[in-house]
Design brief:
Chain A: Heterotrimer of A, B and C subunits. The complex is a heterodimer of chains A (about 500) and B (about 500). By secondary structure, chain A is of the alpha+beta class. Chain A has 17 helices and 14 strands. By secondary structure, chain B is of the alpha/beta class. Classes of the chains: A alpha+beta (about 500), B alpha/beta (about 500).
Chain lengths: ~500, ~500
């Protein structure tokens, strides 16, 4: 089914109410793995960050990473969850070559955190509450690379390569309760939820949560029910939707696909589906003849996790200001609209702007540079703001040079350009390129005199009181000084010399 | 000259320390004994001659350098082939691990090496410790030195047979349902299952994680205590390891005395299926305890009758998950990897060829018991029975200091007799299983020969969790009194091989 075969989005909403469930896996940024001391650094040579435990060698045993438990509790608290006083790990049994023990050590009916919510703010400022079912701890699997098949999938592959560096990296799985009542805004809510969750995870400093690196992965469960119905419809589970935009598109596509099937009198099959970035569609994964039975039972190799209430309260007391509240506070402080704030967020500029403020720049200047010149450059280079070779401190220094009158707007742009080109710090660029504003009154006076002499007609108009005509002379002076003069001072001199009042 | 293989571990260590013999002489004597008799007994799966001699030379060098030697320095030991040994094969008695050379030492292996114990090699066992006769080994059965046509117990039959045939004065076993105590009983040796969590399980190939416990095997109570102290103690690599001081077991073994102790006899450990000669020797032991000054109390622990049923749900359930890792992907046997089979098929073919019948039976039982829809009725109920058994023990230990029973209902049965009757085989662990389910400590020591067949009978002593020293206090008192009566250790009556 392609996008063009589907019923329109409006028609979906006319007949059905969407129900979503979002499952997000976050790789924690702990130094070591969930159950052993191996490093979690990404990008190492395959199978160099392994030991008997994460390879599942006979005889090996797990030991719980205390930092991961702490991170899980922080996430739970930030999601307004209750924190279990006593909970256990469980074994989820199934065979797959990239899973060393052929069971995943996870949590089943005793999650560390449960019954919470996350308020997400939509673009127009509306706040939508997403109820959280649970957040639990588990370990990641290894990584299979299938060679020889057409699509990189196992089907048709001649052989597979296994890398166990990722096996055992701590994961937190955050599961929402069924999200109802979002109606036409369901795709937007899904996106906003994942975005908000990502901000939250970063604010807690428990993971970088980079979706493009697989540090945060989202499964979108979706079903439709006719308006007025009481029972949810059959859901599909779209796996590994790995960008905010894709979350929105996958939700929208599945709503339309479900409606198309249902309108034709068809039945939705409970199945996993794959999302395709290219056309925004989903296709069926392997349909299982019978439901997978994971034969969960409590992990006998680990003792229960029983976080003391004192510790939980200590962690609660240490939580940072939550992203949504922080954004709203900053928006008010900066006096900008909801829409402008959203642009800042979408551009990934918030933290950069704040760092620039912290380095001494005024808010409007910091925002102007990051959202203007620098956003344009990032866009041109196909990169993100944070990856540009300029630091918030350097931007703040440029702002300071403008404020003290050493640079005008045009020179400031050239300075930034120089920094981006790797010519050094703002001061070094100003030095090397000779970008200082011409403030030598003698030289400036001579340039003004020349301009007056060369434009006698205009000078006469100004003498006659047409002050507005001064702009043309200012332009001539700026041209003569190759832009390095302070335009305001040039104007003052012109009016002074011609005896006119500004 | 003394036969060095007939000495106890304590005597051996003393002679090495005094310089009367060298560790190399002791090791060579045992290697020679292995050469002479193990073809008949089949106690060892792998003899590490070179490693053993190197370890012995290191002990002699230490002594020559004037370094202090530990209490078991230079004493040879037979290690059950369930503990990983870096660079030395570890098969767990299974074809599926044939040829696997572990890249790491178990914590227990490390502790033995650190204590300068000389590891002679790896001993035979029922595959993955599943069995009570060592007949389930993929590498052939082990004979009982008392009668080579009979079983040496299991799963640790290699270790018990090595002790009883004087191939080693010390051995290591693991006890999930009786695999240390039952082999000790049928070979007239001493075996201790310490409190669950006392000995690290890191590097001990798992059968049933919540029940498995490594422990010492020896020919005397004191030797077992000396070994207990070497291998026990907290291990940060095992989350279930007890973070508390090791009970004073050596001190208890040196000061055997039961005067004023209350000893419980549990009614449920008797009746149908118990061999008359076994009960006779057991009752004589109880009488002996009374003579030595203990007060004997009769008790009832009604839930013990359900222990076997609970065990055969819990242990297979855990094993079905623990053994899932043997999938031919990373180590061990690989069958069918010829380019025509998928990974899934290679896993299935390997497991078909690599696992024996008993292992397959338990994997299937456990997979079924954990299945959705059956979990509550099977695994869930079994866990409840486990709680009841623990409570019965708690109640009993409110009244008595230790409980005694026969270790096994019968003496050693002939090889092959119960091989096709799993239920009959499972009954061998009737008296030992409750302690695994409750996680407390228990010992088996010889208490005589059954009159009808002249085969060894074991006395089981059970103590509360973390009170393992009581086993040694009672055990050494009984051992001393019985040996005084017999005039020699019981093992001297075993036929020479």
């Amino acid at each position: 089914m392609t996008v063009t075969d589907l019923v329109s989005y409006e028609d979906v909403l006319a007949s059905y109410e969407p129900v979503m469930g979002l499952e997000v896996h976050v790789e924690l940024g702990t130094k070591t793995k969930m159950f052993c001391g191996c490093s979690t650094t990404l990008g190492a040579e395959p199978n160099t960050q392994t030991c008997p435990t994460c390879l599942g060698l006979p005889g090996s045993l797990p030991v719980v990473n205390a930092t991961a438990v702490e991170s899980a509790i922080k996430i739970g608290l930030a999601l307004n969850c209750r924190i279990a006083e006593w909970c256990r790990f469980a074994r989820k049994n199934y065979f797959y070559p990239d899973m060393p023990k052929n069971f995943q050590t996870s949590q089943y009916d005793e999650p560390i955190a449960f019954d919470g919510y996350l308020d997400v703010q939509l673009e127009d400022g509306e706040v939508f509450r997403v109820e959280i079912e649970r957040a639990h701890m588990e370990e990641d699997t290894g990584k299979s690379t299938h060679i020889g098949g057409a699509t990189g999938r196992i089907h048709g592959a001649s052989h597979s390569l296994l890398d166990y560096n990722r096996a055992g990296i701590p994961l937190i799985e955050i599961v929402t309760k069924p999200i109802t009542g979002a109606g036409e805004r369901a795709p937007e809510v899904a996106r906003a939820y994942v975005a908000e969750l990502r901000e939250l995870i970063r604010a807690l400093d428990v993971s970088e949560a980079r979706m493009e690196m697989g540090q945060m992965r989202c499964d979108v469960n979706l079903s439709l029910m006719p308006h007025g119905a009481e029972r949810f419809g059959t859901r599909s589970e779209t796996k590994n939707v790995n960008s905010l935009r894709s979350v929105e598109r996958a939700t929208r596509f599945e709503m339309q696909r479900h409606a198309t099937v249902l309108n034709d009198g068809g039945v939705i099959v409970q199945e996993t589906r794959h999302f395709h970035e290219d056309d925004g569609s989903t296709t069926s994964g392997r349909v299982k003849e019978e439901a997978e039975d994971y034969r969960y039972f409590p992990e006998p190799d680990l003792v229960p996790v029983a976080p003391s209430r004192e510790w939980v309260e200590e962690l609660r007391g240490g939580l940072p200001e939550l992203p949504r509240l922080r954004r709203n506070r900053l928006r008010e402080e900066w006096g900008i609209s909801q829409h402008e704030m959203q642009s800042v967020l979408n551009a990934g500029a918030l933290d950069l702007i704040i760092a620039t403020l912290d380095a001494g720049a005024p808010a409007d200047q910091a925002r102007k540079w990051w959202m203007g010149e620098l956003a344009r450059r990032a866009n041109e280079d196909g990169t993100d703001l944070a990856s540009l070779p300029i630091t918030p401190e350097q931007v703040a220094r440029v702002c300071a040079l403008v404020a003290e009158g050493s640079l005008n707007d045009k020179l400031a742009r050239q300075t930034i350009e120089g920094v981006l080109a790797g010519e050094g710090s703002p001061d070094e660029v100003v030095d090397k390129r000779g970008l200082k504003v011409v403030s030598d009154e003698g030289a400036l006076g001579a340039a003004v005199d020349e301009a007056i002499a060369a434009n006698a007609a205009i000078a006469d108009k100004i003498r006659g009181g047409k002050v507005a005509a001064a702009g043309a002379l200012v332009g001539a002076v700026m041209k003569a000084t190759r832009g390095q003069a302070d335009a305001a001072r040039v104007r003052e001199l012109i009016l002074e010399k011609l005896g006119a009042q500004g | 000259m003394t036969d060095l293989t007939r000495l106890t571990a304590a005597e051996t260590a003393a002679r090495i320390k005094s310089g009367e013999v060298t560790a190399v002489e002791v090791t060579e004597a045992h290697l020679a004994r292995i050469n002479a008799v193990d073809e008949k007994v089949n106690a060892f799966l792998h003899v590490d001659r070179q490693g053993a001699l190197e370890a012995a030379r290191a002990v002699d060098a230490k002594r020559a350098a004037g370094e202090k030697l530990g209490p078991l320095a230079g004493v040879p030991l037979a290690l059950k082939d369930i503990f990983t040994t870096e660079g030395v094969p570890t098969t767990v008695g299974s074809k599926i691990l044939e040829g696997w050379i572990p890249p790491y030492d178990a914590t227990l292996t490390k502790r033995l090496k650190a204590a300068d114990v000389v590891i002679l090699g790896k001993t035979n066992m029922d595959e993955f410790a599943m069995g009570s006769s060592t007949e389930n080994s993929a590498y052939g059965p082990t004979g009982n030195p008392w009668d080579l046509t009979r079983i040496p117990g299991g799963s640790g039959g290699g270790s018990s047979a090595a002790l009883a045939s004087f191939q080693a004065p010390l051995a290591i076993g693991t006890d999930t349902g009786g695999s240390i105590r039952q082999p000790a009983a049928v070979t007239a040796t001493v075996g201790v299952k310490p409190t669950y969590g006392a000995v690290s399980r890191y590097g001990m190939v798992a059968f049933s994680s919540s029940l498995d416990q490594g422990g010492p095997c020896a020919r005397t109570v004191l030797d077992a205590a000396l070994l207990h102290e070497v291998i026990a103690g907290h291990d940060p690599l095992d989350s279930t390891s007890i973070d508390a001081p090791v009970p004073p077991v050596v001190e208890a073994a040196r000061s055997g005395d039961v005067r004023g102790m209350r000893v419980g006899v549990v009614r449920e450990f008797s009746g149908e299926g118990y061999q008359a000669g076994v009960m006779q020797r057991f009752e004589e032991s109880v009488e002996l305890l009374r003579e030595l000054g203990a007060e004997v109390v009769e008790l009832s622990c009604p839930s013990f009758t359900k222990a076997l049923a609970a065990y055969y749900l819990i242990a297979p359930s855990e094993c079905s998950s623990n053994l899932a890792r043997f999938d031919a992907m990373r180590y061990g046997l690989r069958v069918g990897d010829d380019g025509t089979h998928s990974a899934e098929e290679v896993t299935a073919l390997t497991r078909e060829a690599g696992f024996g019948d008993e292992v397959k039976r338990r994997i299937m039982l456990g997979t079924y018991a954990l299945s959705s829809g059956y979990y509550d009725a099977y695994y869930g109920s079994a866990q409840k029975v486990r709680t009841l058994i623990t409570r019965d023990f708690e109640r009993a230990f409110g009244e008595v200091d230790v409980i005694v029973s026969p270790t096994t209902p019968t003496t050693a049965f002939p090889i092959g007799e119960r091989a096709d009757d799993p239920m009959a085989m499972y009954l061998a662990d009737l008296c030992t299983i409750p302690s695994n389910l409750a996680g407390n400590s228990a010992m088996s020591l010889p208490c005589g020969l059954a009159p009808e067949d002249g085969l060894p009978v074991g006395l089981q002593i059970i103590a509360p969790a973390m009170a393992d020293e009581r086993l040694y206090r009672v055990g050494s008192a009984v051992e001393a009194a019985l040996q005084a009566r017999w005039g020699h250790p019981l093992l001297e009556e075993a036929p020479s091989l």
